[in-house]
Amino acid sequence: MKFSNTLIYWYLQNNRELPWRKSKNPYFIWLSEIMLQQTRVAQGLSYYLKFTEAFPTVFDLAKADESTVLKMWQGLGYYSRARNLHFSAKLIANELNGEFPSTYKEIIKLKGIGDYTASAIASICFNEPTAVVDGNVYRVLSRYFGIFTAINSTAGIKEFKTLAQTLIDEIKPGTYNQAIMDFGALHCKPQNPLCNSCPFSESCIAFEKKLTKELPVKEKKIKVRKRYFNFLVIKTDDNKTILSERKGKGIWQGLYQFPLIESEQIINQEEIIASEKFIDLFPNETTISLFNKKEIIHKLSHQHLYTNFWVVETKKHKKANVSWSKIEDFPVPILIANFLDQFQLKK
């Protein structure tokens, strides 16, 4: 039996009940695929439901403020996904009259869409036989065919895409692509794959040669950068604080944060007070205290943020124009959102 036939047969018996699979609407498929990049289905599902309720059409998403979109995305991380989603929604609504591009070559031109997402949308919505290749697919193919080429190398990306394309079912490409993604997520799992009940166990090289733990191969990760963040949480007598939008191309673009002192290492209260930024912000008398008992370590893909939240109480401040009662209206990084949850409980 062909690889694709076996896979689709497994899928028809084991596929996950997911809301976007009840539709061929490219807007819904696009939303789900963007949300599930770097995100598990269990986490992304509630965001998908919230988004489709708030923005039932691409026109609704296009009309929304970026700040609103980012606030609804809060907690999913990788916020460039949300900004690109919003940018492309405006393009589709305003320049394409709400008509989603219908071919792989046109879909991949949209901002924030790469080979995997374009292949998924083109195959599921428009029946174009373009194979998806994501982490699940790399794992299934590397194990089944015994491939040791690194999946994050230029050669590996090309090799696996070519192989995936030869395996796709050209009559039911969307079903096949969803089948191989589900098979990797549910059966050929990263840890403890279900090899003994696998429909491919008689022909899988990794199972035969006991290589499931060695495959797939990945080149060493980029060195993780350590950063030291000191947020100044201002509280004035009239219950105001300072929040500002992060600009530039770094992390958390478009999200809001408290005034930040970034240091070369962990610093104490005396060093905070003596810093140039603190002196500029607070020329008058203040009270300062450390909120968290030990520094909070927030891990991003290539950065670890060692963070302290310093509560600074002062009578008034000319830049403090955000009421504490309105602070939940602002999109903030999950690091700050978690702090706010704890801080509001102790107030």
Brief overview:
With 347 residues, the chain is an alpha+beta fold.
Give me the CATH superfamily of the largest domain: Hypothetical protein, domain 2
Structural class: alpha+beta
Distance between the termini: 65 Å
Mean pLDDT score, rounded? 93
CATH class division of the largest domain = Mainly Alpha
Q: What is the CA-based Rg, rounded?
A: 24 Å
Number of strands: 9
Percent of residues in helices: 40-55%
- Name the overall outline: globular
Number of alpha- plus pi-helical segments: 15
| Count of the domains | 2
CATH third-level topology of the largest domain: Endonuclease III, domain 1
In CATH terms, what is the architecture of the largest domain? Orthogonal Bundle
Low-confidence stretches: none
Proportion of strand residues: 5-15%
For the biggest sheet, the summary is: 5 strands, mixed
Task: Give a written overview of the molecule.
With 347 residues, the chain is an alpha+beta fold. The protein has 2 domains: 3-208, Orthogonal Bundle (Endonuclease III, domain 1), CATH 1.10.340.30; 225-346, Nucleoside Triphosphate Pyrophosphohydrolase (Alpha-Beta Complex). Helices cover 43% and strands 13% of the residues. The chain is built from 15 helices and 9 strands. It has helices spanning 3-14, 26-35, 41-54, 58-63, 66-73, 80-95, 104-107, 115-126, 135-145, 154-167, 173-186, 205-208, 269-274, 276-281, 334-346; strands at 225-236, 240-241, 244-245, 256-257, 260-263, 287-290, 296-299, 303-314, 322-323. The strands form 3 sheets. Strands 1, 5, 6, 7 and 8 form a 5-stranded mixed beta sheet that branches. A two-stranded antiparallel sheet has the order 2-9. It has a two-stranded antiparallel ribbon with strand order 3-4. Strand 7 (296-299) and strand 8 (303-314) form a beta hairpin. It is globular, with a radius of gyration of 24 Å. The protein starts with a helix and ends with a helix. The model has no long low-confidence stretch (mean pLDDT 93). Keywords: 4Fe-4S, DNA damage, DNA repair, Glycosidase, Hydrolase, Iron, Iron-sulfur, Metal-binding. It comes from Polaribacter pectinis. InterPro entries: A/G_AdeGlyc_MutY (IPR005760), DNA_glycosylase (IPR011257), Endonuclease3_FeS-loop_motif (IPR003651), Endouclease-III_FeS-bd_BS (IPR004035), HhH-GPD_domain (IPR003265), HhH_base_excis_C (IPR023170), HhH_motif (IPR000445), MIG/MutY (IPR044298).
